[in-house]
Inverse folding.
């Protein structure tokens, strides 16, 4: 198995691609973007299922969701001109601080 950290980053990237295409799928009414969404989510979950065999589930999910949220906000900003407000930016900072704290605290059991 490749390093679980690489697989986790690939799982995050796949989830970000899938989520980024949700808007383009127009409620799953457009076949192309819908196929991208479903494929990307399937890839992400497959990779996550392998990562949690090696890394603690809580750590894995915290990183997957935290990094994914911040990445999606950046995609929304760059691709859809969705500018976060101050409260949302504070929330993103807290999520980022949480991800950093989880990583610095070690992986535990």
């Amino acid at each position: 198995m490749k390093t679980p950290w690489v697989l986790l980053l690939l799982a995050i990237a796949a989830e970000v691609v899938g989520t980024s295409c949700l808007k383009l799928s127009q409620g799953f009414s457009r076949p192309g973007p819908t196929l991208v969404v479903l494929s990307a989510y399937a890839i992400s979950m497959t990779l996550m299922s392998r990562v949690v065999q090696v890394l603690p589930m809580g750590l894995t999910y915290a990183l997957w969701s935290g990094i994914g949220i911040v990445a999606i906000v950046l995609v929304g900003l760059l691709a859809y001109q969705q500018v976060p407000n101050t409260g949302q930016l504070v929330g993103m900072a807290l999520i980022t601080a949480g991800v950093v704290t989880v990583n610095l605290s070690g992986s535990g059991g």
